[in-house]
Amino acid sequence: MAVDESFEADGFRGGKWAQWVEPSTIVGNVSRTTGHAFHGVASTKLQITSGAGRVGVSNKGLGNAGLFLQANKSYEGYLFAQLGPEAPAGGMDIMISLEGALGHGSPLASTSVTLQLPGWTRLNFSLTPSTGTQCDTIQPADDPSVDCGNPISSIGHACVQCHGQFSVSISSVGSVYVDYVFLQPGSWARLGELPVLKSATEVLKVMGVTGIRQGGSYASRAPGSAAYYQWQDWTGPPWARPSRGAQWNECLIGGWGPFEMIAMCNALGIEPIITTTESSTPDSLADLVEYCWADPASSALGRQRANDRGTPAPYNVTYFELGNEQYNSLFVEQVEAMEKRATALGKRGELRYLFPSNNFLSDSDIAKAEKLSPRLDAQMLVDLHVLGGGGVTAAEALFAAHPDFAMGAANAETNAGTHTHQRAMLEAADLNEWMSINASTQARLHFRAASFCMGSANDFDRWDQGISFFLPNGTWLQPPGYVHQLIASTWQPFALPVEVTGGSTTSVSAQQAANGSVVVVRLVNDSPQPLNVSVVLLNATGVPLLLDGARLTAWSLQADDPDAANTAGAPSTVSPTELSLPLERHGTSVALKAFDYTVIEIQVS
């Protein structure tokens, strides 16, 4: 909840610590101290020389938008502190508080911790506010301290100001250094004991998310990324990591790394896909495999993982991307070393290695890969990054271009650049293509990712493509998120032939249950004109199915305006509505509206 926990990001636009001295008549100051840090670059020094009052720092979270605090709910965390040279012999009291609109003078919850030991000391705290805080919608220019990104108009976004903040202060003569301040909701709001907001994961599950890729440009293109994104720098407790303070563009990423993501995915039953820097040596990446999978009883790296994680359980991760949107000239050597280590750990053939460029390996590197024994073609995947769709076509072209090398493919980024209903139409049509591919191509395609699972509604940025949005006080689906929800709630595993007449531009796919008891049809009309279509379902040999006695249910995700989106105040403006359709002997007739995604589920007698 507190952004810039270790005072590393001088000038970070996404959130900062406010410094204060109250009243102004006391002699005191707050300073960011680069020469005296618990670990990393900087700490903050709080000092009072004379007078009665308080000196402290306050944090309002991401974008300085303020904290949404719930009444009578616990919040907990820790910080590291050390007595300064001006501290009295008896030590110093540090006040930790949650505050509302009235500020430092009227905390909603506070606790005082006495610091007496001479070295850096971890201080744990728990706070339960007596009343909650509210969030108000503001215009981007109303409060310059709140960062709403680029002040452009985009439906679904909101600039909000919540009235909670977190403060650390002193009130007596002396000084203390403060470093690495961490705040989170109590277990009531988290996924188990992980630092993960449970309500956000529930949205992921509603959308049917089965895989999450962590990675992208920050693993390959940020200044110094080769230095800070070595996987070893993200192990151990967060406050002791060399990656503390790591930034990508204007985003702080140091507090959340690949292993937190893997742990979250493992807890949710979601497949994690991690992207690491291509600059790692083959031996280093082999050690990563061992760190994730080895038995602590027989491996030093396995014991390190168990100590880091607090459990002997492995990090269950099988997809590793070795770089991002670049040519990795070490890829074959890295894969060979990782697979050799995996084999030694009893995981032969179970891991997948993503090559980080749409064009895959050069002819010379393919020749090198063909000499591996055993061949690892099928475990090597090309990672295809596309715009709103087209991953299947790109994969088929690559497979045709390399008929003697049986690599797989994944579509780990779909950068449509929008979150509106038009994105919903792109998602639905592209997913129809994925669900209609032939068996030989299907066997080589591993996954498709929608970029991004979530985006901040409080940040108008150039990557405005979250299929769900969040604010400090809530999370909700955008229209493309509802496409995924509809697919997840009606999923069937086997493709089925289908005939559609009356709409030549209609995108369609059909699937059925393994025992044939359920059939699903998915139709997309990405046109401003309504279409009347007839649907005939076929069996695998092309013979029309008999639907006598069947039961039909249908839903439509539709908006007349392709730029429509869901706001925080009206989160279901564009959401599925149930349809009443006629059941015919071999299918149905559908009046598709403009910009319409219709899903039909038939329970076959």
Automatic annotation (TrEMBL):
<dbReference type="GO" id="GO:0046556">
    <property type="term" value="F:alpha-L-arabinofuranosidase activity"/>
</dbReference>
<dbReference type="InterPro" id="IPR055235">
    <property type="entry name" value="ASD1_cat"/>
</dbReference>
<dbReference type="InterPro" id="IPR017853">
    <property type="entry name" value="GH"/>
</dbReference>
<feature type="domain" description="Alpha-L-arabinofuranosidase 1 catalytic">
    <location>
        <begin position="205"/>
        <end position="386"/>
    </location>
</feature>
<protein>
    <recommendedName>
        <fullName>Alpha-L-arabinofuranosidase 1 catalytic domain-containing protein</fullName>
    </recommendedName>
</protein>
<dbReference type="InterPro" id="IPR051563">
    <property type="entry name" value="Glycosyl_Hydrolase_51"/>
</dbReference>
<dbReference type="InterPro" id="IPR013780">
    <property type="entry name" value="Glyco_hydro_b"/>
</dbReference>
<dbReference type="Pfam" id="PF22848">
    <property type="entry name" value="ASD1_dom"/>
</dbReference>
